[in-house]
From TrEMBL:
This is Zn(2)-C6 fungal-type domain-containing protein. It holds the Pfam family Zn_clus. Residues 29-57 form the Zn(2)-C6 fungal-type domain. Keywords: DNA-binding, Metal-binding, Nucleus, Transcription, Transcription regulation, Zinc. It comes from Cylindrodendrum hubeiense.
Length: 611
């Protein structure tokens, strides 16, 4: 899950020796494979050979020997490749990508199930070649700034798509398409194609929502292995405006949080299922909360559901505390625990404020914001000196909750402490699926700048020096430049009535065939230089401005700035920030604020922020 060092936290262990020399060989494997007298792959909880052939796996008996170790990367059956590129990509995946994607506790998926099925499923094999090649591109660029050719990766991606289409003509379970869809999501994350990634998440969740209840080995694998991954992908979906289908209750391990968790994986799965429900609830609750004509009974129903979710969160926290108090200490496991604690705090605030329309409501949750900052600092600080986190993570980990704290916590010192975490050397150039550290740092700093621009006691930011990101034709007078830029940014074409949540209608998820003509001739993906209605490019916060926001002198702050509402009235607070498309060295960002007097639409502005 957490991938915080170049070597990874928990590489897959090597298989144990089969026994002492001269000992009698014991036939191991599931009951079904023993009866059929074929070699069993001994996957848990059910043999993959049985699943692939549609047989009922009767499980393992006590005589099967000890529980097999997680799959060692070197033990994957060899697959014939037709080129050195294919061989290199497969070796890179086994030796590097699988470990990074696995993090501390997901080796059984990326280094186990995916690799095993790649031996017999062409769609999976082509997909991991694309994942590996793109991952190498990301790592080389992060380390050296050098761009690698991505045409091989997109070609393998196209081959995977074609193989999956052919697979769809066979009468088999939906486990393989669901797994391949996860690999496609990873490919789009690495290629930095937001719309296509959302399309695959939406499609995978749609397949999940259509699955009937069942007790087959395939369904057990879907429930135990794939559903938790799709639940965690909610953070890369809901928070970017997408609306994936609900995960059916019969695919969840339980509907009520148990009093005791057996493993850390079980606790993690439970939290993200709750978080998924909380995000679904928040979207629906906001529509009701902002509608002054909402039915009173509907509001009572939402309040009851809100209380149920908060009760389940409290139950989860109690069970999690019991579990962690009995677990042996290790830095990798503690980092995972701290990450879960962060998302527990964030979930509590999300759900608690989902029926409130004001930004001031967040001021009541300073303890939660403080905990998020402290836990994130502990994780980042656990890295050895002069070590950076992995350049890419499939999971949504630190960036989202830290950025959210910067934008929603108005305590001047706390939000700057969060911003400082995003600028730590260990986080430099970090990407967590769709979350980019550089983008979120600049956007978070801009939110602070916009909200605190009118303060008179140490909150104003230094003027941007001429040539350090100012828009073309701007003068050296920062205040005049900022004022005129904001005037140009206001868009009369973007109108959202105040009876609607302050947000844009999410664009439909879309997909561009990686081998289509829309892929640029240099092999580096689709052209992102689409025209925009906004030709002016206002200044983004400079490095000096970000440093000034981080290092606020306490002696310059009046006492009332450290108590809610921190000198920031509702009218000046950013109610929502929509991260848009990336173009060149910047990102389009849309901000929502309270409307002016006698206005009935949210004040909407759009800026191009240089990263």
């Amino acid at each position: 899950m957490l991938s915080i060092s170049p070597q990874g936290i928990s590489p897959s262990p090597s298989p144990k020796p089969s026994g002492r020399k001269g000992s009698k060989k014991v036939r191991t494997g599931c009951v079904t494979c023993k009866i059929r007298k074929v070699k069993c792959d001994e996957a848990k909880p059910h043999c993959l050979r049985c699943i692939r052939t549609g047989r009922q796996c009767d499980g393992y008996t006590a005589s099967s020997g000890s529980t097999p170790e997680p799959l060692a990367l070197s033990s994957v059956p060899g697959v014939g490749f037709s080129s050195e590129q294919e061989t290199h990509a497969f070796d890179y995946y086994r030796a590097r990508s699988a470990k990074v994607l696995s993090g501390a506790i997901d080796a059984s998926f990326w280094g186990g199930l995916v690799l095993k099925l790649s031996a017999t499923e062409p769609a999976i094999r082509h997909a991991i070649l694309a994942v590996s090649s793109l991952h190498e591109c990301v790592e080389v660029k992060s380390a050296t700034g050098r761009e690698l050719d991505r045409r091989f990766a997109f070609r393998e991606y196209g081959n995977a798509i074609r193989s999956l289409r052919n697979w769809g003509q066979r009468d088999e379970s939906s486990a393989v398409p669901l797994l391949v869809c996860i690999l496609f999501i990873c490919i789009e994350f690495l290629a930095d194609r937001d719309a296509a990634a959302q399309m695959h998440i939406t499609q995978g969740r749609k397949i999940l929502s259509s699955l009937a209840d069942g007790r087959s080995p395939t369904m057990e694998m879907v429930k135990q292995t794939l559903v938790p991954i799709y639940a965690r992908l909610s953070l890369a979906s809901f928070l970017f405006g997408s609306r994936p289908a609900t995960i059916p209750a019969h695919l969840k391990s339980w509907t009520e949080v148990p009093a005791v968790f057996a493993t850390l994986e079980e606790a993690r799965c439970g939290l993200y299922l709750l978080l998924d429900e909380g995000l679904q609830f928040s979207i629906q609750a906001h529509v009701v909360a902002f509608n002054p004509n909402a039915d009173a009974e509907a509001m009572l129903t939402f309040k009851a559901e809100q209380q149920r979710l908060l009760t389940q969160l409290a139950r989860w926290h109690a069970a999690f505390t019991v579990l962690t108090s009995m677990m042996p200490h290790s830095q990798g496991v503690e980092n995972v625990q701290n990450l879960l604690r962060m998302y527990h705090q964030a979930s509590f605030v999300w759900i608690s404020t989902s029926l409130q329309c004001t930004e001031v409501a967040y001021d009541a949750h300073l303890p939660a914001f403080s905990a998020i900052i402290s836990l994130a600092s502990s994780i980042i600080g656990s890295l050895p000196a002069n070590t950076r986190m992995e350049a890419f993570s499939f999971e949504t980990e630190l960036v989202a909750p830290i950025y959210w704290t910067v934008t929603k916590c108005r305590h001047p010192l706390l939000r700057r402490a969060a911003l400082r975490l995003l600028t730590r050397d260990q986080m430099r150039n970090r990407r967590e699926n769709l979350w980019h550290v550089r983008e979120t740092t600049v956007i978070g700093a801009r939110v602070i700048e916009k909200e605190e621009a009118e303060f008179e006691d140490g909150f104003s930011l230094p003027s941007s020096p001429e040539g350090s990101g100012s828009s073309p034709g701007s003068s050296s007078s920062s205040n005049d430049t900022r004022s005129s830029s904001l005037e140009r940014q206001t868009s009369p074409s973007l109108k959202v009535h105040i009876t609607q949540p302050p947000s844009l209608i999410p664009p439909p998820p879309s997909f561009t065939d990686p081998m289509s003509e829309e892929v640029s001739s240099d092999g580096f993906g689709p052209d992102l230089s689409a025209s925009s209605d906004f030709s002016d490019e206002p200044s983004s916060p400079t490095t000096a401005a970000i440093e000034a926001m981080q290092q606020l002198d306490l002696s310059t702050i009046k006492a009332n700035r450290l108590e809610s509402p921190f000198g920031i009235p509702e009218s000046r607070r950013i109610k929502n920030t929509v991260i848009g498309s990336t173009e060149g060295n910047g990102v389009w960002t849309t901000f929502f604020q309270e409307p002016g007097p006698r206005e009935v639409e949210w004040k909407v502005s759009r800026e191009f922020l240089r990263c």
